[in-house]
């Protein structure tokens, strides 16, 4: 079976990489794109894009209503990702969402919609297998080391902080970590934000610098020792094996899955 795919964010760093991957897969066909601009044009008309006659839509509802497709791949920006995905599911498409920055409430609403429509939907905070393992290792370590700080480091074009990966790591850690307020009980910030974000006592620090791609360290502190679990993505190809896997897998699902760890064997 050929999977007919619509991609949102085709001119972006992830969108471009994903389109190249899709065009090279025998069982995948790119049938449309959703972009912020270029409504009515073909992908081939856009400088730097592959020479394929695939229509571009600005309005996602219009796109899903007029193009026959199986899967929607969301790789754009946090502000529109939720609406695009709702429109996809309402029009009977399955969805793979890589865009970060969805709120817990939005994820919950998508879960309900996917359940009602009996459609697969994968929300992947991080497609890189190494990052998924890093989160799983961190979840395991949190059973033994409840004092934890997360440092996520990304390129300076990133719109959301903390990263989707850091939020998912925290969710997974909190499933195994005993409740604990970290640091000194009388600790005070003399410069606001110095201790980063704090949820359930775990601190998250977001670094944004040119030169970085996507990196995370989870540091565990114990008596006389620390354990650091690190993952680095050095390019966007690092995510493509996971994108490909999710596009194939979502077709078998009839509900929403949040996190690649729940679908990897
Ligand atoms: N889950 C994962 O493994 C990964 C997720 N990401 C996430 O994917 C998203 C995209 O990342 P990048 O490609 O680096 O960003 P980018 O900034 O390079 O690309 C985003 C694209 O979305 C387009 N866009 C803006 N408004 C739009 C709209 N209304 N409809 C369609 N497209 C629109 C922009 O014009 C831009 O071309 C981000 O949220 C990022 O955090 C990035 C890397 C890996
Ligand atoms: O914006 C990015 O680049 C990335 N975003 C995702 C996130 O927010 O965790 C995944 C990866 O870290 C790259």
TrEMBL record:
Catalytic center residues: 154 (proton donor/acceptor), 158 (proton donor)
Assembly notes: Homotetramer.
Dihydrodipicolinate reductase C-terminal domain span: 130-264
Domain Dihydrodipicolinate reductase N-terminal intervals: 4-127
GO cellular component terms listed in the entry, alphabetical order: cytosol
Species this protein is from: Cerasibacillus quisquiliarum
Amino-acid positions noted as binding (S)-2,3,4,5-tetrahydrodipicolinate in the UniProt annotation, renumbered to this chain: 155, 164-165
Annotated spans, Disordered: 178-197
GO MF annotation list: 4-hydroxy-tetrahydrodipicolinate reductase; NAD binding; NADP binding; oxidoreductase activity, acting on CH or CH2 groups, NAD or NADP as acceptor
Protein name: 4-hydroxy-tetrahydrodipicolinate reductase
EC number(s) per entry: 1.17.1.8
Catalytic activity, as annotated: (S)-2,3,4,5-tetrahydrodipicolinate + NADP(+) + H2O = (2S,4S)-4-hydroxy-2,3,4,5-tetrahydrodipicolinate + NADPH + H(+); (S)-2,3,4,5-tetrahydrodipicolinate + NAD(+) + H2O = (2S,4S)-4-hydroxy-2,3,4,5-tetrahydrodipicolinate + NADH + H(+)
Its job: Catalyzes the conversion of 4-hydroxy-tetrahydrodipicolinate (HTPA) to tetrahydrodipicolinate.
Annotated residues for binding of NAD(+): 9-14, 35, 98-100, 124-127
Primary gene name: dapB
Keyword Membrane recorded: no
Family membership: Belongs to the DapB family.
PROSITE patterns: DAPB
Keyword Lyase: no
First-listed, main subcellular location of the protein, grouped into a coarse class: cytoplasm
Listed Basic and acidic residues bias regions: 178-190
Highest taxon of the lineage: Bacteria
Pfam families listed in its UniProt record: DapB_C (PF05173), DapB_N (PF01113)
Sequence positions that bind NADP(+): 36
């Amino acid at each position: 079976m050929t999977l007919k795919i619509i991609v949102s964010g085709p001119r972006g760093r992830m969108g471009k990489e994903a389109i190249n991957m899709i065009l090279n897969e025998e069982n995948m066909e790119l049938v449309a794109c959703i972009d912020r601009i270029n409504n009515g044009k073909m992908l081939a008309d856009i400088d730097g894009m592959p020479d394929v006659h695939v229509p571009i839509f600005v309005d996602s509802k219009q796109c899903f209503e007029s193009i026959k497709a199986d899967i929607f791949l969301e790789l754009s920006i946090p502000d529109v990702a939720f609406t695009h995905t709702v429109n996809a599911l309402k029009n009977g498409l399955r969805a793979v969402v890589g865009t970060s920055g969805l709120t817990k409430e939005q994820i919950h609403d998508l879960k309900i919609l996917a359940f009602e429509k009996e459609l697969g939907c994968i929300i992947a905070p991080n497609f890189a297998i190494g990052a998924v393992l890093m989160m799983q290792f961190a979840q395991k370590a949190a059973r033994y080391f409840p004092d934890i700080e997360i440092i996520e480091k990304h390129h300076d074009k990133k719109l959301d902080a903390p990263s989707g990966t850091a939020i998912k790591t925290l969710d997974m850690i909190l499933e195994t970590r005993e409740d604990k307020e970290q640091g000194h009980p009388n600790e005070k910030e003399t410069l606001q934000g110095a201790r980063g974000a704090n949820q359930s006592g775990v601190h998250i620090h977001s670094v944004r610098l040119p030169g970085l791609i996507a990196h995370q360290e989870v540091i565990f502190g114990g008596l006389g020792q620390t354990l650091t679990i690190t993952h680095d993505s050095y390019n966007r190809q690092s995510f493509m094996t996971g994108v490909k896997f999710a596009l194939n897998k979502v077709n078998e699902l009839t509900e929403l899955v949040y996190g690649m760890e729940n679908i990897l064997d």
